[in-house]
Amino acid sequence: MACTRPPSAPRSAISNVNETSVFLEWIPPADTGGRKDVSYYIACKKCNSHSGLCEACGGHVRYLPQQTGLKNTSVMMVDLLAHTNYTFEIEAVNGVSDQNPGARQFVSVNVTTNQAAPSPVSSVKKGKITKNSISLSWQEPDRPNGIILEYEIKYFEKDQETSYTIIKSKETTITADGLKPGSAYVFQIRARTAAGYGGFSRRFEFETSPVLAASRDQSQIPIIVVSVTVGVILLAVVIGFLLSGSCCDHGCGWASSLRAVAYPSLTWRCGYSKAKQDPEEEKMHFHNGHIKLPGVRTYIDPHTYEDPNQAVHEFAKEIEASCITIERVIGAGEFGEVCSGRLKLQGKREFPVAIKTLKVGYTEKQRRDFLGEASIMGQFDHPNIIHLEGVVTKSKPVMIVTEYMENGSLDTFLKKNDGQFTVIQLVGMLRGIASGMKYLSDMGYVHRDLAARNILINSNLVCKVSDFGLSRVLEDDPEAAYTTRGGKIPIRWTAPEAIAFRKFTSASDVWSYGIVMWEVMSYGERPYWEMTNQDVIKAVEEGYRLPSPMDCPAALYQLMLDCWQKDRNSRPKFDEIVSMLDKLIRNPSSLKTLVNASSRVSNLLVEHSPVGSGAYRSVGEWLEAIKMGRYTEIFMENGYSSMDAVAQVTLEDLRRLGVTLVGHQKKIMNSLQEMKVQLVNGMVPL
Ligand code: ACK
To answer: For 82-104, how does the pLDDT look when each residue is reduced to its tens digit (9 = 90+)?
Structure first.
């Protein structure tokens, strides 16, 4: 029999990442070593993104169908860690591989897992049980995949599933009260991180204590006593408020001390002072799927409140200034400085926050407008919407405290990290923004100023929509320009019908979302470059649209064009955008088809004259002006000696000329595009 040898390495391995699962597929080796018993082995390494050092993955990773002896040319790895770099080595082996003293033959694939929702809570223990209440405690999920923001506890009386109660808690304990004595209740718990909710735990069943006949009547007595006492105190508080009026604002009089008796948290606890049964828990009751008690579902315009202060306190929690440590100034807002700092609430670990302050000497209107943003933000609860921690209104300076987003605003962040992300990472950012916008549009809230500068991004690259307000937002935005009708509008981001007759709807937000997609895919490029607002309005009205950013997947550019349909009813809805992006993320090969580089440029030339009479007299002058003078000689030697000739340059030409650095390619192509746009006063005709 002829001698046989180990196989060569498998070929063309591709990966598909779905949250914390990775699917690998490859082609069999070119050389099977003259044997028919080839199988595959997967080695998994977890790599540190800073040091580049890798270590074996350990036992928590599951391989489907298995790790060794794979006969098929694909495998799925599940239960990986979120946001982690992995290297998978796929090795082909046969019956003589063991005998081989030489190096292993494998193909390796590097992937970064995405964010994932937390795994289900697996252990729930009962605590104190009375005839009307059940206390529970539980352990954090095995794989939280991020910081747990809160838990949702759903419970209902056994066999009465259609009528259930939901409690939200930031702690791992709750007490469900108001239950029937001697009855079985079913509990399910799920955790939420920035990635959303995980799955519900399995059902846990616990029973309240039975009522003892003799104690039934007596048991009512303390309740009545307590009710009467609380009733008297509340009555006193109300009368106190009515009598004392503005005096309370100055912290004097008996009303404030009475308030302290009724709500000890006001004076004795460092934390929220909203009059709730428990500041950590929010309860919503559902019956047959409908909300019975107040659950925020649709957005309420704070302007509908006669007293805007009432709106703020309805939707935002009051924080005591002593709980906040301001660390440094990170920016300037319309109303005052924006700072980073830390918030320490009672019973909770200190955590980083952003603090917007209202500068001294403000007018009443400025205060109202400033706090208006908190009244809006406080109504939202979504992983892709900036989360409001609370407000400080009882002392000065007046502050709005929100979660801290380490990477700041998205446009600046992308400009700083030009070309640094994979397409999947960029699509992940867009997916987050679309998901936040879907939530807002479901709530009936129209943003009106959706732009990359108004998106914040955290250290996990989670994007969140921020900057809420009504007219204020636009007053505040340096991009907003006055229209002929007197309104102030960020022209480049705004749909034509909103510019022309102020028709702001979720469909006009979709248009702006298309512009944000363009900003993201071009790493923070300014939409329509240096064209004037008037030229932008004219070009868009005439049917021109922004050309595709460089190296942009065709599917994404098509989605942008869909968002820029003139007829607003033909634009996709945010839920459709989210599902489309999800599909692309699940099937990354669909992102491999890029917008053809040459068509991208020639699109611009359609109907329009080429560059030639532009501002530059020679190729050398132009390249020098964009700091690419080093390529002058190569251009001249290859026949690009006039600006007319340069106008025809495509990305492929640049590569052929030896301009291989992506940054340089971008600079040259963008400059060409800019010149053409300035000349033709238009973009891609639809
Ligand atoms: O790009 P930046 O660093 O991100 O500069 C602006 C600045 O404050 C003025 O708005 C930053 N900023 C605003 N809100 C937050 C936040 N929640 N977390 C972190 N940075 C923020 C923004």
So the answer is: 778 899 999 999 999 988 888 88
